[in-house]
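One such given next:

>
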Amino acid sequence: MDVERTYELLSDVPAGKTVVSESGIRTRDQLDDLERVGVDAVLIGETLMRAADPEAACRDLVGLEGEAEVY
């Protein structure tokens, strides 16, 4: 699983189509980079599944460190 695959395929996506990155996303920086290049959505599974504390991992990914609740 490698987020670089998204970058490799991005130029093949027709204009106006929704782009979803589905592989290898582990950090907030990766999410920021994907947004910068025009990715519309992400699918994150393994990173949260393997985390000792999935809620904390989710907070880190969305930038909510220390916030009270995630809805």
User: Anything to note?
Assistant: Residues 48 and 58 are 7 Å apart (CA to CA). The first strand starts at residue 20 and ends at 21. The two ends are 28 Å apart (CA to CA).
